[in-house]
Amino acid sequence: MEQIPILKVEGCLLVSIQVDMHDQLAMALQDDLTRRVVQTRARGVMIDISALEIVDSFIGRMLNNIAAMARVLDAVTVVVGMRPAVAITLVELGLTMTGVHTALDVDRGLKLIRTLIARGDAQTGARLATSPN
Amino acid sequence: MEQIPILKVEGCLLVSIQVDMHDQLAMALQDDLTRRVVQTRARGVMIDISALEIVDSFIGRMLNNIAAMARVLDAVTVVVGMRPAVAITLVELGLTMTGVHTALDVDRGLKLIRTLIARGDAQTGARLATSPN
């Protein structure tokens, strides 16, 4: 079962990361996601990391890459479900995720994506931001 | 990472099964799901099985159990993302999933759940049914 399913929810793509990521799986996910963005003409990508206890520089880079690829395909990327401990570690380690937006959960992520699309953020370049509410 | 995340999407709970299920994990998922149904007062549960290449009697029984538990908590259960090969095998083996509705994908699942809730199916008992559209 070495493929991460990509779900279509309300015009956005949703990926829930539950397994340990390694190079090959990350590459496959990037491939699948970019293909699905084009296929479905999705304007938003949500990545749920609620199962992750640790976000290291490898995962951080993968999220950055996905966001960058989605952006050139005119889609915004929102990371949802971050655990409190992960947020603390990210800040303490000074890991930045440029171009990756975050939201508390899927519902807020959907709302944030709609806001960003309305603002035209996908094309003008995204910044690290948290959900406005 | 032995916990399957439960996402809240538009008032429903969404579970994407990506890892091999075993007894203990299935029990934990049932526990978590029922707790979340009560906590969030969700009326619908969606279980994405698009990552599963095989649905055997163990998985079938787990889906039946989840649907039965959700039903007594007044929620409907919809299985989404079934692969064509899985559908063929289910019918050929004569495996029935009583009380489990199915829909093609998450979007149709959400629509089906809304239809079922409007019809009051959670309390009157669900049947094996496919998405109407």
Write a concise synopsis of the structure shown:
By secondary structure, chain A is an alpha/beta fold. Chain A is 47% helix and 17% strand.
Protein model, in words:
Chain A is 47% helix and 17% strand. The first copy, chain A, has a 5-stranded mixed β-sheet, sandwiched between helices. The C terminus of chain A is likely disordered. The termini of chain A are far apart. With 133 residues, the first copy, chain A, is of the alpha/beta class. At the A-B interface, strand 1 and helix 4 of A face strand 1 and helix 4 of B.
Alpha-carbon distance between the two ends of chain A: 37 Å
The helix tally of chain A amounts to 5
Average pLDDT for all residues of chain A: 87
- The portion of residues forming beta strands of chain A comes to 15-25%
Shape of chain A: globular
Biggest sheet, spatial arrangement of strands of chain A: 1-2-3-4-5
- Quaternary structure state of the chains depicted: homodimer
Low-confidence stretches of chain A: 125-133
SSE order of chain A, as H and E? EEHEHEHEHH
Biggest interface, chains and residues, is:
A-B, 23 and 23 residues
Backbone CA Rg of chain A: 13 Å
Q: How many β strands of chain A by DSSP?
A: 5
What fraction, in percent, of the residue positions of chain A are helical?
40-55%
Main beta sheet of chain A: 5 strands, mixed
Structural class of chain A: alpha/beta
